[in-house]
Each structure stands twice: as structure tokens, then as C-alpha cells.
Amino acid sequence: MKKRYLFLMGLLCLCLFFSEEVKAQTNPGTPPAAQNVGKISGVVTDSTTGKPVQYTTVSLVKKGSSTSVDGTLTDAQGQFTFKGVAAGEYSLAFSFIGYEAVSRHNLVLTNQKPEVSVGTIRLKVAATKLKEVTVQGLRPTITQEADKMVVSVQGTALAAGRTAYDVLTRAPGVFIDQEGNIQLNGRSGVTVMLDGKLTYLSARDLRSLLEGMPAENLKNIEVITNPSAKYDAEGSSGILNINLRKNEVQGMNGSVYGGSTYNFKQVGFTLGSTFNYKTGPWNSFLNLDVARRVGGREATFTRVFYGEQNTTYFDQVATGNFEVQGPPAVRLGTDYSLNDNHSVGFMTYFNTNKLHADFLTDTYIGGAPNSATQYIDANNYNSNRFTNFTTNLHYLGKLDTAGTTLSANLDFVRITNRGDANFYNYYFDLTGTKRDSIDFLYTDTPNGYNIYSAKIDYTHPFSRGRKVEFGAKASRVASDNDSRFFFNNSEALVLDPQRTNHFIYDEDIYALYANWSSKLGERYSLQAGLRAEQTVSRGESITYDQVNKRSYLNFFPSLFLQQKVTENYQINYSYSRRLQRPNYGNLNPFIAYRDPYTYWQGNPGLRPQYTHAIGVTQTFKKDYSLVANYQLIKDVMAEIPILDVERALTIYTIGNVDDGHNLSLTANVPVKIMKNWDTQNTALVSYSKYMTMVGEQKATNDQVFYSFQTNHNILLPGKLKMEINAGYRGPGAYGLYEVYSQSWVNVGFKKSFLEDKLDLSVNANDIFKGQRIKVGTIGRNINEFDQYFRARSIGINLRYNFSRGAKFDPKRQNSIDEVNRT
Asked: What are the Outer membrane protein beta-barrel domain coordinates in residue numbering (predicted)?
């Protein structure tokens, strides 16, 4: 174990040593006056309409060099500025998709002439489409900022013909398992946001929403490993914020799509459309998605219970199937510009579907290996009607020309589940000494959540790059879960009071934050913040007449220091404190039945976990990054299998397993193999350690974990695009579990027709069936399971993009957490 610590600490020290060496060799004799002379500015317009062209790429190139020393994008007025430019002679290069490239040369900065304005740059609409434009967009641009990594999606091949879910799964450091749980840099506990707003969706329904959203609608993905105080403290591993493009085409545009998948057991399909309509001050959208989503698993469960007198061997083979289908999910909204500085809008999302699932098991139990004395045939069938209604009202105001803004959001979410299940258990005695028997059970599990949230944010910039942010938020969650369990062995249902539970949970969270950012000279910038959150909760089990009340105030500081060592090398240092509150269902002490020897039970005494995160990020040439992170996790929440040796019973619950440590290094390396072949590669090595009590003994679970993911975008002849996504995850540790390795290879092809209006995509996922989840537990008793969630599948998708309206107008081109716990 000490060797593992020394290995990882050595890598970290090597990174820091390398950064110091680079600093020592950077312009050692350059006088300070020559490093900060002045600025270069200008404005970019359309040569035909005279309107500003926003988001034009402007590159600053020093004479005698073929690479840019800096780059920027024009703002809403088409303006751009390079500040802190050293003395010398420069050129500017302007480029934007659909326009001809433009250059300006012989721009000289001196101490006597510290400012240069190039005036108005007029871009002409390109007469032909250049093949090179497509090639340059094969790989998404990755930008490292002080507190986040920004993955640009707009205009890349990664977005073409794909869904938002596809793009998210391929973001650096992101891994999504077969059940929809998201991990970031090998750690769970990730919060997902859309346009800076919490999604209020479960993992399954978030996936449905993103699978129905064309990736062409995305502007970028912000990977926020250590969020600032502006964000909710919820999410121990960070935040993924998906920013959508704003509709900029006057009139109507959108797409219709359809597709089918086959996992070699079941067939699923998806149909949908997106509509955008812009006229005058109104900008509206409508998304419809109807699908039949299918899945299942094949699994084996092995357990050995070592008792004082006897040893019991438990072997189980299981098969599960599910399908989810319902009327179209609807997401619609509109924004109305009161004037150039103020806008209001709303968004609403409605989704309802019906789940049908079965879980069929064959179980053999005996006192010796391969010597069973009892066989149980257990068949579980359940259905559930899920409904989600989410609505948001928002306001955005620009209070002055300096950039002072005020925004406000009101959210309401209603989630309901109406579920029931039948359990048919058939017992067979293999010794011939006992009679065979049956045991039929039935459950009715209605539950619902009401979530209310209000927040306000204020931003005020000052001169010399300084900015202050303030904000407040209040949220309330009210849930009602009435789980009823019945014996179904006679003509009438008989209530089982031992497994029936009516649970009511209310939670209020009040938050305040302040954030300050400033430049510290020309090479350093600082961002510091503090967030305070007061949590008041009350959980009541009406059945057992038990009430748990909690009230706690926590402070969450954050600190970010960005150092610009050279034009091509920068270092970011960060610290933040985060928390992960228990899932509402995990606090409910009800029993979820799986088979006569396996069930899951909630834990009303579950405590939140807290994380201290320290990070050092090195960025090279704005594309390559090396991230070192350390996390100290207090009161780790993890699944705990409790083994009742005498009854050969396994009870799964979520508990606190003391403290955890995680030390990791993550490298993001883009490589252009050929002109038409681009790759994005992510490598991770980490060390995790968990300590807890197993029985009456303290146990340690630690592991060096490593993973690698590579994404290849290849432009083949005939404009056929090919994408290969492959990865490997080595053995890992989490809580009491030892997780075995897994791998995957996904391949996709895309071809466009009808002047790129019609996209045909074909894909094959997990070709070699390597995404098998195999897990064991530490301790004397054995509890292992091996499951495959039918990740291997083939699919075909067809999407048609349409537009009926005015020509493209470049003037305005720009582009909540409580529910994640349901």
C-alpha cells in the first residue's frame, strides 16, 4: 500500500517539478515593460448586411511564427480585443463557418504606440463549401478555464447526426454505466445541468431527455470538477453543465428523426422532432420524443455464509427484461425580449410513461458446493406509471453597459410513480424429506415528490478584470411514499405489517453565496467564494410512528488561482468543499423485495457525505491537459450488503462507511493521426481507499485504478464519417465492493444526403461484450455478482433537418439538483 502511495505522489511531484522548470525557462531576461504593452481591437461585420458577426474566430499571430499566440471570439456587437499584447509585429486571421477567411498584417505595437485598432473587418459569404472546414471540425475544441473545462460541440463532427446523450458520454473523463449513473474521472456523485439550471430528472429520465435532443442543438459542455460557490454545493464529484445553442434563424427550423435499436434480445425505437420559431422579440422551441426503450440483464449471484455451526452456499442465475413506452415527451419554452437589455421566458417539460419489467431467478441453496438441498423458482413482475412535470420561469436583465446583470429563476417540479408488483415464489425440496410449497406476494408502491425552488443571481464587473457575484436560493421538497406489502396466497390480499411502510419526507434548503474574481497582474487571476447552506428536514414513518428531524448549517468555500506561465502553458490551482445529500428514497425505511433471500431496505439514519477537493490542472497549447486531484471524503455513502448468516439472507442498504481518500491524475491528449483522422484521448490513474467496520472488525478497501478512453473521428471518401469509441477500466474499489475490469468498443458511421439535410447514422455498441459488471465484497463472507446489461446493440437513425425562414442572421448568435436525489 505504501508503494502505491509513493507511486502516485511521485507522479504528482513530477508534474509540479515540470511546471517549475517551465516557469524558470520562460523569458528569464525580458523586462516587465516589454511583456505588457497594450491591446489590439476591432469589429467584424457582414459585408452585405453590415450587421455584426458574433463568435467569429480571431487569431493573433506574431511575425515569423506559423502558430497563433492568442485567440478570441467576437461578442454580440462583433467586437474583439486582445489585451496585454507584448511589443512586436502581428497579423490577425478571421474565420467563421459560411464566410471567406480574412487576414490583416503589419500590426506593430511599441511602447510609444501601445494600442492598435484595425477598424471594421467585413466578411464575405463563401461562394463554395470548403472541404477543409469539415476536417478542421472533426475534434471538439477543449478550453481550460479557471474553474472548469469547456468542450465546444457546435459545428463539430461529434455533434453531426448524434444526440446530446451521445456527446455527453464522450466528454473527457465522463463515464455512464448501463443504469444511467454518471461518473466523472472515475467518481460518482455528478450533478447535471441544462443552461445552468438543474434538470430535476432521475438518471433514467435524464437519459430519455438527452437521447431525444439533437447534438446540433448543443453549444458546449462545461466539465466543472471543482465548482465555485455560485453553484449548489450538491454533487461530490462535480457538475456537467450542458449549454444549448440559441435559435438565430428568423422563421421556423428544426428536424424530425427516427431510429431503431436491437440488443439481440429486444427491439426498441425512437421517433421525435424539434421545432424552433423566431419572430420579432419571441424565440420559441418545441421538442417531442416518443420512444420504446428496452433493456435487460443476465446475471449470476454467488454467496457463501460462514456461520458458527454451518456454512451455507447460495448460487443464483437471473434474467431481467424491461420496456418503457408512453406518449410523446414534450419540452417547450419561449423567451421574450422586452428590449435590448431585459428578457423573460418560461420552459416546461412533461413526460409520462409506463414501465413493464420482470426479474426471473433460479436459486440453489445447500451446505456444500454443488450440493443443493433446496431450489427456488422466483418470478417477479412489476409495472410503474411515471409522470414528470417540470416548469421554469426566468428573467435576465443587463443593468448597464459595463456588464452588470441580474437574473431570477422560479422552478416547480411534480414527480409521481404508481407502481405495483407480483412475486411468485416456488420452493422445491431436493432431499425428498419436505413438501414443496409456494409463496405469492404483492406490493403497491405509490409515491410522489413536489419540488419548489427560487433563486436570484447578481453580477457586477469592475475595471481591470475584477468581478463580484452574489446570489440566494431557497428550495423545498415534499414527498409522500405509501408502500404496501401483501400476502397473496389466498383469494383476498392480506396486509403484511412488517413490510408495509408509509413515509413522509420534507426538506428545506436555504443558500447564500458570494464570489469574487480578479486579475493579479498580467499572469495571475484569482477567484474566491463562500457558500452557506442551511438544511432543515423531517422524515416521518407513519407506520412505525418514528420521526427523524435534522437541521444543519454548512459552509462551502472555493478558491481558484490561474497562472499564465506562457502563451502555451498555464496552471490552475483549485480547492472546494462539496456535499452529497442522501437520495430521498434511501431515507425511506421501506423494504424493496427481490426474492425470498434478497431485499433492499432504506436507512433513515443515513448522513450526508462531505468532500474536500484539491486540484492542480496544467494546460499545454490550450489542447493538452494534465489534472492532479485529491479528495478527502467524510462519511462516505455507499451500498452495504448485510449478510444474515443464520437465514442465508442478504439485505442491501445505503450506509456511511467512514472516510474515503482518492488521489488521481487525468490526462487529456488530442492527436491528429492524419489530415482526415482526429482523436481525443483521456487517461486516468487514481488511488482510492475506504475504511469501515465489517462485523466487529475494521476493514480497509483500497485499489489503484486506471482507465483509458479514446475517440476517433475519421473522414472517409465520399464524405462518409466514421467514429470509433473505445475504452478500458481497470479494477477499482468503492465502499465495501471490489469492482473488476471492463472494456468496450463502439463504432458508428454517418452519411449525409440532400445537401446535408438528411443524415443517416448506423452504430454498433460494445461489440465484444466487454462492459460486464463484476463485483465482489471484502470480508470473510462471500458476496459476488456478475451482470451484463445488454450493452451490445446495433442501431440505425435517420434525421431530416429543415428550415423555412429568413437567411441566417449572425447578429445574435450565442448560444436544479433536488430531483437528482429522487
From this structure: 398-800
Query: Which of 593, 600, 650, 602 lies closest to 423 in space, CA to CA?
Result: 593
Mark whether 13 and 161 lie in a shared domain. no
Q: Which residues contact 321 (CB under 8 A, 6 or more apart)?
A: 265, 266, 294, 295, 296, 357, 358
Q: What torsion, rounded to 10 degrees, do the Cα atoms 224, 230, 208, 758 define?
A: -70
Query: What is the predicted pLDDT for the residue at 31?
Result: 42
- Cα 159 from Cα 176, distance rounded (Å): 18
Instruction: Please indicate whether residue 819 or residue 81 has the higher confidence score (pLDDT).
Output: 81
Containing domain of residue 12, as a range?
A: 1-30
CA 240, 349, 268 angle in degrees (round to 5)?
80
pTM exceeding 0.85: no
Q: Are residues 505 and 563 in the same domain?
A: yes
- If asked whether residues 260 and 351 sit together in one domain, one would say yes
Cα dihedral 814, 816, 821, 822 sign: negative
Q: How far is CA 315 from the centre of its chain?
A: 36
Instruction: Report the alpha-carbon distance of residue 102 to residue 193 in Å, rounded.
Output: 37
Distance CA 637, CA 659 (A): 9
Which among 198, 225, 219 has a CA at the least distance from the CA of 209? 198
Same domain (yes/no): 423, 277: yes
Query: Mean per-residue pLDDT for 259-264?
Result: 92
Residues 519 and 489 in one domain: yes
Dist CA 362 CA 358 (whole Å): 13
The Cα–Cα gap between 220 and 715 comes to 22
Task: Give per-residue pLDDT as tens, 170-225.
Answer: 777 777 765 566 777 767 778 888 887 777 666 666 776 676 666 767 888 888 87
d(CA 687, CA 699) in angstroms, rounded, equals 17
CB atoms within 10 A of CB 449: 23
Statement to judge: residues 180 and 122 lie in one domain: no
Nearest CA to 537 among 574, 589, 582? 582
Q: Per-residue pLDDT averaged across 226-242, rounded?
A: 83
User: Read out DSSP for 416-463?
Assistant: EEEEEEEEEEEEEESSSSS--EEEEEEEEEEEEEEEEEEEEEEEEE-S
Distance from chain centroid for Cα 408:
24
pLDDT digits (tens, 9 = 90+) for 599-610: 888 888 899 999
The helix/strand/coil state of 612 is strand
- Which CATH number covers residue 339? 2.40.170.20
Determine what percent of the chain falls in helix, strand and coil, rounding each to the nearest 5: 10, 65, 30
Q: Are 579 and 632 a contacting pair, CB within 8 Å?
A: no
- The answer on 26 and 56 residing in a single domain is no
